[in-house]
Write the structure tokens for this entry.
Amino acid sequence: MYSLFIGLTLGGLPILWKLASPIRRDVWGGVVLGAVLMGGLVYLQESGVGGAGLSGPFGLAAGGASAAGAMILPGVSGAFLLLLLGQYEPIIDAIKDTVGAIKNTDAQELARQMKVVIPVGIGVVVGVVGVSNLLRWLMHRFERPTLGVLMGLLIAAPAGLYPFRAGVEPQIGDVLGGAVVAEENLAEMRSVENSKDWSQEAYTPSPTQIAGSLGLIIAGFGATLGIAMLGRDKPDRTRQGDQGD
């Protein structure tokens, strides 16, 4: 999935390159700035700091706003940004549990999940309205540097999605999800349900794994380009007909 995300993300580069052409110094300055910003975000996430401050209602709202805003930006993945912020799985789990609570008419569970869903929903609305207006203002006044920043964000984004990593089973004394691992909860902490919180270590991939990863990157890259091609402006036949009449 990380390989697929890399492809989906990089697939936005040709789109932005075409919009920013011809590429000059003002665009390259934006590329450097965007790459530095994304590199800093990746560093914070890899060091365990990235998602630390994004907890509670305000943190969830900030995550929702960031993801919704990213969806407006050409080629930037909102899901990828949530991954970097460490909020992708908590939000997805909350949505699934909300659906389950509605099916089971479990009011108590539904109320518990609303503590996640409502702040995220508020953040989404704020993100769409705020980022769309900010982007419109920036594109109107600083179009080429803004496109450069977006390109820099995409170029540096895959640094946080290195696919050849595996979870390391927690040991007694480790801290997992804010709880200390002890003999009493060791089995629970090593369960599949908690594996998403395990620390990650890079490993040397096999040729088959490398080939599979490259295949998924190419597939994601092609998917983004395909969607972009489908979204190209087409001649308005109705308008042409009216003009002919």
About this structure: The chain has eleven helices and four strands. Residues 235-245 have pLDDT under 50 and may be disordered.
